[in-house]
Design a protein that fits this description.
Largest sheet: 6 strands, parallel
CATH topology: TIM Barrel
CATH architecture: Alpha-Beta Barrel
Mean pLDDT: 93
Radius of gyration: 19 Å
Number of helices: 15
Helix content: 40-55%
Number of strands: 8
CATH class: Alpha Beta
Number of domains: 1
Low-confidence stretches: none
Structural class: alpha/beta
Order of helices and strands: HHHHHEEHHEHHHEHEHEHEHEH
């Protein structure tokens, strides 16, 4: 079954929730406690699905998994996403000291594989997960300013770095699909800093390699204004593109390919966090009215961890009427 077929099985709206940091507060387990245990991840997935019923299982998002596995210094809040605190890779010599992690033997990755496998056997809904993209990982490893400078002064370093990050994402993506993940989204927020003419060589080559033989539904999410970027992404073998809240997807809908799914794009801050129930309902209805059959409702980015629970419940229940 294709993603398009899945979201058109019934005459109702379908919802893909970006709620990667909302569950731990509800379960009173820290992010690290949940990351470390397949059983805790299953408990979280079940509780999230019961509290916020949607059409996908997306209980937890380990956004900086790759940086963590590669030994990058991270700040790890108990109930929010981790943040990179250092950018240690400055030269080819630094890069050569890193090894491509093996998802089947690396402790952190292996635990996630066990978690996905456990969830897939216990909950009969597609599992969705988001992975940091190769370019964004390169920015995290080298630093944005240094990487952009290197594109001019040291292109060989950039080439080797992107080859490395591409292999890291590729190997892990294939492993999690084997473990039961049904939909993989590559998040490339850092690509908005690139000039459009640099986008194909810096981003598309890796995405094409990752998606080529990936046997699942495939998606890309990029934060910010992607007006000049998303047409490039449509050249890759994806099933869907996920838009940030600043984009007016009603204006994109007419020119977007009918065989690919538009995902988006309720504002997670002003609408989900600070809006009223009426405002949320009105925006969902507006999108339902103007979007076509290739539309999958979601958030423009992940809901913040203190989003009112009643707002998340409203969206989940309102969509499934």
């Amino acid at each position: 079954m294709t993603l398009m077929e899945y979201i058109n099985q019934e005459e109702r709206g379908y919802l893909l929730p970006f709620m990667g940091a909302n569950g731990p507060i509800m379960t009173r387990k820290t992010m690290e406690e949940i990351y470390a245990s397949p059983e805790e991840q299953l408990i979280l997935a079940k509780k999230m699905d019961e509290k916020f019923p949607s059409d996908f299982i997306y209980a937890l998002d380990e956004g900086n998994l790759f940086c963590d596995v590669l030994g990058v210094m991270l700040k790890k809040p108990d109930y929010d996403f981790s943040m990179v605190m250092d950018h240690p890779i400055k030269t080819i010599e630094d890069l050569e000291r890193l090894e491509i992690p093996n998802p089947y033997t690396n402790k952190r990755m292996k635990t996630n594989l066990e978690s996905f496998n456990l969830i897939s056997k216990n909950i009969d809904k597609p599992i969705y997960t988001s992975l940091q993209g190769p370019f964004t990982m390169a920015v995290q490893l080298a630093g944005a300013t240094e990487l952009l400078k290197a594109t001019i002064k040291n292109p060989d370093f950039v080439k080797k770095l992107l080859e490395f990050t591409g292999e890291v994402v590729d190997g892990y993506a294939k492993a999690i699909v084997e473990a039961g993940v049904n939909m993989v989204s590559i998040a490339e927020p850092s690509t908005v800093m690139l000039a459009p003419k640099k986008f194909p060589g810096m981003v598309l080559d890796n995405l094409n390699k990752i998606f080529k033989d990936l046997n699942c539904w495939k998606c890309v999410h990029i934060c910010g204004d992607t007006t000049k970027i998303y047409p490039y992404i449509l050249e890759t073998p994806i099933d869907a593109f996920s838009f940030d809240q600043i984009m007016d997807i009603s204006k994109i809908s007419d020119e977007f390919p009918n065989d690919k799914v538009i995902i988006g794009n309720l504002d997670p801050i002003e609408l989900l966090g600070n809006g009223s129930r009426v405002e949320i309902e009105n925006e969902i209805e507006r999108l339902d009215d103007v979007m076509g059959d290739n539309f999958l409702l979601s958030f423009g980015c992940s809901a913040v961890n203190n989003t009112p629970v009643e707002h998340l419940e409203l969206i989940c229940n309102y969509t499934r009427r």
